[in-house]
Amino acid sequence: MNPGDFSFAVSLTDVEDWAYVEEDFDRLLGYEPEGCFIAEIEKQPVGLTTATSYGPMAWIGNVIVDEEFRGTGIGAQLVRTAVDYLASVGVKTVHLTSYVSTIRFYERLGFRQEFPVSTMSIATAGFDSPDVDVAKETDLERIAALDAAYLGGDRSRIIRRMWRDFPRLLLMNDVPAGYVIATCTEKCCEIGPLIVESGSPDAAEQLLRGILGSVLADRARMFVPHANPRATELVESLGFEEDFRTMRMVHGEVNEAERTEGIYALGALEKG
Ligand SMILES: CC(C)(COP(=O)(O)OP(=O)(O)OC[C@H]1O[C@@H](n2cnc3c(N)ncnc32)[C@H](O)[C@@H]1OP(=O)(O)O)[C@@H](O)C(=O)NCCC(=O)NCCS
Question: Which of 9, 105, 183, 243 has the smallest number of Cβ neighbours within 10 A?
Answer without folding.
Answer: 243
